[in-house]
Amino acid sequence: MTEFKGSITALITPFRNGNLDEAGFQKFVEWQIKSGIDGVVPVGTTGESPTLSHEEHKRVVELCIETVARRVPVIAGTGSNSTAEAIDLTLHAQKAGADAALVIVPYYNKPTQEGQYQHFKAVHDATDIPIIIYNVPGRTVANMSIETMARLSKLPRIVGVKDATADLARPALQRLASGAAFRQLSGEDATALPFLIQGGHGCISVTSNVAPALTAQLQAAWRQGDLKTAMAINERLTPLHEAMFCETSPGPVKYAAELLGLASGELRLPMVEISDASKAKVQSALKSAGLLN
């Protein structure tokens, strides 16, 4: 089975005049790989999946897989608050050749813990691809409990979690409940290093859209036991992590990518261009990290 670890980029989706910028997206993915990233996630939250049509969603997954060409793992975002829709998107990712599916805890309809379990079990049973649970209560209002996740981890192809709770007690508790083989990936850039110390295996990152080499080097330093280097990189990146969330993501990171000439900063409504004050924060943080002159 593919090992999911290190710095994994939650990819932005570039647009041009309201449409997918397919060439721009593939160029961006290629740059990510050449920069040393450990994996990629197309059409997650950072990829503006809520405003992509199903056809666009599937196309982005296909373009990503084609560009990556098996060089790093591709974890395709396939979640929905509709179980049937999540199954459809996960089946597509499986057929397209993704290494895993990232499936969000259902949002808006606020399922119970049993409802969450049955949702993921249904997606698992209808597909044949590794599944990573995406627990992000700040967006879904439905926090999966440690016990429910441990129960799900007993299913053979539910292999890990993207944990965006920012609860640094949780990875240690989840490790005790689900075992060391259950892959725990932070969904919070600012806590990526302490998450590793608590038993995590990596980070699905927003910041790595613009700093893939640095985020990958931090993770590699940790795996090599070089805590001094990991801490130095973490300190260098901390202002950038903060700036990437000065407004709702992916507004800041798309602006940063445009500043660096990596991709278009265009957003889709209801996401809008960030304020001038936020732009100044992003520029300052990029300079502080040594990414912008």
Overview of the molecule:
The protein has helices at 22-34, 54-68, 83-96, 113-126, 137-140, 146-153, 170-178, 192-197, 212-223, 227-243, 251-259, 276-288, and strands at residues 6-10, 15-16, 19-20, 39-41, 75-77, 100-104, 131-135, 158-163, 183-186, 202-205. It is an alpha/beta fold and 293 residues long. It has one domain (6-225): TIM Barrel (Alpha-Beta Barrel). Helix 7 (170-178) links the parallel strand 8 (158-163) and strand 9 (183-186). The longest helix is centred in the last third of the chain and has 17 residues, at 227-243. The mean pLDDT is 97.
* Total helical segments: 12
Count of individual domains: 1
Calculate the terminal CA-CA distance, rounded to whole Å. Answer: 42 Å
The largest sheet has its strands arranged as 4-1-10-9-8-7-6-5
- In CATH, the homologous superfamily goes by the name Aldolase class I
- Assigned CATH architecture: Alpha-Beta Barrel
CATH class: Alpha Beta
Instruction: Give the DSSP E fraction (strand runs of 2 or more residues).
Output: 5-15%
- As for the CATH topology, it is TIM Barrel
- Low-pLDDT stretches are none
Major sheet summary line: 8 strands, parallel
Shape: globular
**CA gyration radius, whole angstroms:** 18 Å
Q: How many strand segments?
A: 10
Percent helix range: 40-55%
Order of helices and strands: EEEHEHEHEHEHHEHEHEHHHH
Q: Kindly state the mean pLDDT as a whole number? A: 97
Structural class: alpha/beta
